[in-house]
Amino acid sequence: MKFAIISAGEGSRLAQEGVARPKPLVELNGEAMIERLIRLFLRQGAEEVLVIINNEVPQTREFLTRLQAELPVKLVVKTTPSSMHSFYELSSLLEGDKFCLTTVDTIFREDEFARFIADFRASEADGLMAVTDYIDDEKPLYIAADAGMRITGFYDEPTETCNFISGGIYCLTPPALDTLRRCMASGMSRMRNFQRQLVADGLKLQAWPFHKIIDVDHADDIAKAEEFLSSEF
């Protein structure tokens, strides 16, 4: 199984709010977000962690280059217009096996993630998608699922059948990459539209509920994330 991190955004909102570090290097309880994710993935059996970063922030590249001396990290450096485009740049490296993909600012508890990955390894579904009923996002992606937790749709607004939002952790199988390439060829953008296309293509996606997932988009999210990681359920 392969693991990948999208870390190609600019982190402009954090910078505007006075956070000096590039987003991937923002520390949570003393550890840079990107290093935390890499080490967490390695503890879940990753032989190598793929990471895409942009060309605009040399500090992040320097940090990861130093980390490569210690940890098995494969680095892709390319500025992209969206997370979906970053995913596409990684896609050739994700061929041939199940994979887990997330963005660098997605914060979750390791114990839940371990169960999530174990279930995905054993699953015959085309994808296992992290979801949560904790909503603290400016533009949440609402998820509808049937009684068996099979995802039936992704929506920008809540509906009567939407009990969860996307948590931004995607466990997928190789057929999803075919959908991704068709999305790119058609000029589609945004990860949420790719996810909608997965459903349209008939892929079996299962929702896996997390207690809470936090995105670090603003300065005050840093304290929220640190408290969440330090607390008990």
Notes on the protein architecture:
The chain is α/β, with parallel strands linked by helices and 233 residues long. The chain has one domain (2-230): Spore Coat Polysaccharide Biosynthesis Protein SpsA, Chain A (Alpha-Beta Complex), CATH 3.90.550.10. The chain contains eight helices and 13 strands. The protein has helices at 12-16, 33-43, 58-68, 83-91, 110-122, 175-185, 191-200, 219-230; strands at 2-7, 27-28, 31-32, 49-53, 73-77, 99-103, 106-107, 127-132, 142-145, 151-155, 162-172, 205-210, 214-215. Strands 1, 4, 5, 6, 8, 9, 10, 11 and 12 form a nine-stranded mixed β-sheet that branches. Helix 3 (58-68) links the parallel strand 4 (49-53) and strand 5 (73-77). The longest helix has 13 residues, at 110-122. The radius of gyration is 17 Å and the shape is globular.
Strand content: 25-35%
Instruction: Please trace the helix and strand order, writing H or E for each element.
Output: EHEEHEHEHEEHEEEEHHEEH
Number of extended strands: 13
Q: Structural class per helix/strand content? A: alpha/beta
User: In DSSP terms, counting alpha (H) and pi (I) runs of 4 or more, how many helices?
Assistant: 8
Name of the CATH superfamily: Spore Coat Polysaccharide Biosynthesis Protein SpsA, Chain A
Outline the low-pLDDT stretches. none
* Number of structural units classed as domains: 1
Instruction: Please state the CA-atom Rg, rounded to the nearest Å.
Output: 17 Å
Named at the architecture level, the CATH assignment is Alpha-Beta Complex
What is the level 1 CATH name?
Alpha Beta
What is the typical, i.e. mean, pLDDT? Answer: 94
State the helicity in percent bands. 25-40%
